[in-house]
Amino acid sequence: MDLLIKGGKVVTAKSTFKADVAVTNGKISAIGTNLKPDAGTEVVDAKGKLVLPGAIDGHTHMAMPFGGTISTDDYFTGTRAAACGGTTTIINFETQPVGVKMSKFLKEKLDLAESQGPAVDYSIHMGVGDVTTQEMLDDMAKVVDMGVTSFKVFMVYDFGVDDGQFYATLCKAKEIGALVGVHAENKNVNDYLVKKYLSEKKISPWYHYMSKNEAVAGEADERAINLAKMAGAPLYIVHLDNAQGVAAVAKARAEGYPIFAETCPQYLYFTKEVYKDGRPEFKLRPQDFVCSPPMKGKESKDALWDGIRNGVVSTLSTDHCPFLKKEKDWGKKTKDGKKGNFTTIPNGCAGVENMYPFILSEANKGKITFNKAVEIASTNQAKLFGMDYCKGAIEVGLDADIVVYDPKRKVVINNNKNQHGALDHTVWEGVECKGYPCAVFSHGKLVFDGKDFVGEQGAGKFVKQKKVHHKGPSF
Question: In this structure, is residue 454 part of a structural domain?
Fold first, then answer.
């Protein structure tokens, strides 16, 4: 026994109980009452604290090229921030370039991640950039053999797929034991609205929202679900943000289809109003909140909370993709000095350090249960993406990725004082968390002591995803 966490209240997706948790060689080795430490065992007093599985952020964009720059956090600084918020595994998106086989590209990105030295464990989703030939489509099977069984298609952007390519990807994924995620927005309507607003000299961040409004997202959510039904394949809708989409997911799941949805903390806390005024009391401008998809109205925010409570929304992730303030200012003046607009702002916000503290704080306030928070931020992620053999629960035999959480501690998010990423601001500035992690362990090693990162660069390892065959809405 290397580590013994004593006297805490263990929280799983299904139950809460007082127990000690023992760790040996990086794995949870025993759970019980009055466990006795061995000579040399490190003992952590968790009396009055909750003992939780580390969160899994299933949607990050570390070191991602976008709009003439690269997202501010890389595989080290991003996972360092994650660790300090209780997230002990990330799943990062890497999107295949046109003309490059996915398997070759995946090998390059695994090498990149290793070279940057992740602080905690990571896995990868493969973004689909080119399935225009049978050879490219068939290469998905090699990616699965390499330990990546999750793919993502985009219904927007120049590198997005058309409905036929989307359908083909779904069919192939079903065949090889993989899960397809989708960024669902109506590309043609989005493009039309962008052109319209720019022609009318409407260039502020508000029109980022207007061109990607609830209807633009909701229609695509429904179409994506229909394509999955046609293919007889499971589907994972990433960053669900609108009431129409929530209703469509609820209907499909009630009909027995394996349709799953993720939402993000920003859609549960902010609304579209940030694109008008920002949060000036924290020196945050409207452009600082530009992400894709943008925050929506209160109706959608309320529908997402209801979806979490009733099980329609399966997971919580961040879409962490931060950019510096000077890069956000490209909406006013671009990198080459030309006049900017809402389309020239790099899309993305920070969140990987804030996800678990935020949702646990909401549980602490009674909005959801702690069990539900663990379910959507850890357990369901592990099950959906084929990592439940080693992640997602406080359970004997699993990795000792453990968060000791103090429900009485209050922390006000301050980018300069208590955040650990590489960004010069956070949209979460000034948000108060009721309760906060006081210790975070990765493989039984302390990585966050309640104040500072105390782990090691390079300690995180690639987590292989096993094949998945989701047949219905339960898993």
Answer: no
Contact 359, 377 (CB under 8 A): yes
Mind listing the pLDDT tens digit of every residue in the chain (475 residues)?
999 999 999 999 999 999 999 999 999 999 999 999 999 999 999 999 999 999 999 999 999 998 889 999 999 999 999 999 999 999 999 999 999 999 999 999 999 999 999 999 999 999 999 999 999 999 999 999 999 999 999 999 988 999 999 999 999 999 999 999 999 999 999 999 999 999 999 999 999 999 999 999 999 999 999 999 999 999 999 999 999 999 999 999 999 999 999 999 999 999 999 999 999 999 999 999 999 999 999 999 999 999 999 999 999 999 999 999 999 999 999 999 999 999 999 999 999 999 999 999 999 999 999 999 999 999 999 999 999 999 999 999 999 999 999 999 999 999 999 999 999 999 999 999 999 999 999 999 999 999 999 999 999 999 999 999 999 999 8
In a domain, 303, yes or no: yes
Note the maximum CA span of the chain. 74
Domain end call among 384, 409, 426: 384
Q: Name residue 260's beta-bridge partners.
A: 236
Domain that holds residue 442: 3-52+394-448
Same domain, 205 and 347: yes
The 10 Å Cβ neighbour count of residue 68 is 12
Amino acid, single-letter form, for residue 114: E
Count the domains in the chain. 2
54 neighbors 390 (Cβ within 8 angstroms): no
> What whole-number distance in Å separates Cα of residue 429 and Cα of residue 420?
13
CA distances for 446 relative to 44, 113, 449, 451, 463, angstroms: 11, 22, 7, 12, 19
